[in-house]
């Protein structure tokens, strides 16, 4: 038995070396981007390691240039670090580079691309994006839900006020804001909200979403993803992924999708005004446009793409505001001048508060939640700059470096919202140096929700509280923790929130 296994492994190894040799022969004619010398089987993996975060990739760009290639075992990874090449990938050749790579773990969580975020560019993606646009990504939706957002934010502010430690030792403000973000998105999806941070259903949901993010963003499975011969050793990890995926989709189905269907069958069809996102999506399923799995993967996508990204950005913004009291006061002064002291900010106000907007842009510049965008991919061999890009390469646009490169940003490592006051750089991608939401076909459709939600939450907190570091500390820690392509604050800030009269 053991001998058979050994023979099998040797055969696999020989086949692999043969394949590499053949692909080398074939790739001879390609003019590949520069990069460190790759060794057989491992490629550059042993040199560059697992953690290919935005900072490490920026350092490699300084050495190899605005485009370089890393071979991570069997996978080609192309990293783009200039505004011109970013434009090429995201705009000019947006179709060629508009697909996504997945890896062994993302294959599990997305059912091999049955979702929208991780599917290749094509008919399925177009249909899913169209079906999701009406219930989530239009100004009409913003107008339909702005009162619900304002009320959720007000409720978070009230809860924070009620806690005595808020104004003394401080609280981990993220916890209450996380409940707020779940309530905002679950109201839009299912017309549901969770009463408190202890709500058992909320706790289950949060735990499963957290587990999904941790498993997907971890570097622990790289070896089996890069080097297929090692994949058998990943069996245990992938088994856990499958279990989490099943439990999560079952939770979405049993507690939310089916509940909504039951409600519609007992109360009769919902009227146009009462329709929430899932009603639109189930209609698409009834028409045969998508299947039940696609419905659940849409719910899955919103859970990961919408809630934590916006929450991380909120956390970073609050941390910087705590660390820069003069900026905090400037935001408060602007709110007082434009709206009047004590008049709570509402959604239509957000566009006439340039300083608040600048603070949000600066937060998204310095602390991009998805600093390398969601990985892109070219299905077919393609050209980029003067180089050939092998088919199915993973293309990372280092959006963080574009927005933090001292060549075109003054003091990029400092939090200076004023830089956004004079020029007309928008978060929507009118300038290829600043792409916190990407740009083009695969850009973030959620920007239309994320920007007003961020402005409302941060504006309202600053109107309601003086936000300070905890006693004995002059600043909160803004160290980072990155994953496969996500970036968040390492230590959730403890913040003192002193109510303002
Ligand atoms: C501050 C908050 C957010 C940030 C920084 C952010 C950032 C991004 C980025 C960088 C991408 C990838 C762009 C690319 O690959 O070119 C993306 C994709 C996406 N985002 Fe967001 N996002 C945020 C909030 C949201 C929200 C609130 C939603 C939904 C309600 C959302 C839904 C999506 C979806 C569905 C995609 C995939 C688009 C596609 O592949 O076609 N995001 N986001």
TrEMBL record:
Xref: InterPro entries: Cyt_P450, Cyt_P450_CS, Cyt_P450_E_grp-I, Cyt_P450_sf
GO molecular function terms noted in the UniProt entry: heme binding; iron ion binding; trans-cinnamate 4-monooxygenase activity
Family membership noted in the UniProt record: Belongs to the cytochrome P450 family.
One BP term from GO: paclitaxel biosynthetic process
Transmembrane segments: 6-22
Protein name listed in UniProt: trans-cinnamate 4-monooxygenase
UniProt-listed Pfam families: p450
Swiss-Prot/TrEMBL catalytic activity: (E)-cinnamate + reduced [NADPH--hemoprotein reductase] + O2 = (E)-4-coumarate + oxidized [NADPH--hemoprotein reductase] + H2O + H(+)
Membrane topology of the entry: Single-pass membrane protein
EC number per UniProt: 1.14.14.91
One Gene Ontology cellular component annotation held by this UniProt entry: membrane
SUPFAM superfamilies membership: Cytochrome P450 (SSF48264)
Principal subcellular localization: membrane
């Amino acid at each position: 038995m053991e001998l058979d296994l050994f023979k099998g492994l040797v055969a696999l190894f020989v086949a692999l070396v043969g394949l590499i040799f053949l692909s080398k022969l074939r790739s001879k004619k390609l003019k590949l981007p520069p990069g460190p010398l790759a060794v057989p089987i491992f490629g550059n993996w042993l040199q560059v390691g697992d953690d290919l975060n935005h900072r490490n990739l920026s350092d490699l760009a300084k050495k190899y240039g605005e485009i370089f290639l890393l071979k991570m075992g069997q996978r080609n990874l192309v990293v783009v670090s200039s505004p011109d090449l970013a434009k090429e990938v995201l705009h000019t050749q947006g179709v060629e580079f508009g697909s996504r790579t997945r890896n062994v773990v993302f294959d599990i969580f997305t059912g091999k691309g049955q979702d929208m975020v991780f599917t290749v560019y094509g008919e399925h993606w177009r249909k899913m994006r169209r079906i999701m646009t009406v219930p989530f990504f239009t100004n009409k939706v913003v107008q339909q839900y702005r009162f619900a957002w304002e009320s959720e934010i007000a409720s978070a502010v009230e809860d924070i006020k009620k806690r005595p430690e808020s104004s003394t030792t401080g609280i981990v403000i993220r916890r209450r804001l996380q409940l707020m973000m779940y309530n905002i998105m679950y109201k839009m999806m299912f017309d549901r909200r969770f009463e408190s941070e202890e709500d058992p259903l909320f706790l289950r949901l949060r735990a499963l979403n957290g587990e999904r993010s941790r498993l997907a963003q971890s570097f622990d499975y790289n070896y089996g993803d890069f080097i297929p011969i090692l994949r058998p050793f990943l069996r245990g990890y992938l088994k856990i992924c499958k279990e989490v995926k099943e439990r999560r989709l079952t939770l979405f189905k049993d507690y939310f999708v089916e509940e909504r269907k039951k409600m519609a069958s007992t109360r009769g069809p919902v009227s146009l005004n009462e329709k929430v996102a899932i009603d639109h999506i189930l209609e698409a399923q009834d028409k045969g446009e998508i299947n039940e799995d696609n419905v659940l993967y849409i719910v899955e996508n919103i859970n990961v793409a919408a809630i934590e990204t916006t929450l991380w950005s909120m956390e970073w913004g609050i941390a910087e505001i705590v660390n820069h009291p003069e900026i905090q006061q400037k935001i408060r002064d602007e709110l007082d001048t434009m709206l009047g002291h004590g008049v709570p900010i509402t959604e239509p106000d957000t566009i006439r508060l340039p300083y608040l907007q600048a603070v949000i842009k600066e937060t998204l510049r310095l602390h991009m939640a998805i600093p390398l965008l969601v990985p892109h991919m070219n299905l077919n061999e393609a050209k980029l700059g003067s180089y050939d890009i092998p088919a199915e390469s993973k293309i990372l646009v280092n959006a963080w470096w574009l927005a933090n490169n001292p060549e075109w940003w003054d003091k990029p490592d400092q939090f200076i919202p004023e830089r956004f006051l004079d020029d007309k750089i928008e978060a929507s991608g009118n300038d290829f140096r600043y792409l916190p939401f990407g740009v083009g076909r695969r850009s973030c459709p959620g920007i239309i929700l994320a920007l007003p939600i961020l402005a409302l939450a941060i504006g309202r907190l600053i109107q309601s509280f003086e936000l300070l570091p905890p006693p004995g500390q002059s600043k909160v820690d803004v160290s980072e923790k990155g994953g496969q392509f996500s970036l968040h604050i390492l230590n959730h800030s403890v913040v003192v929130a002193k109510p303002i009269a």
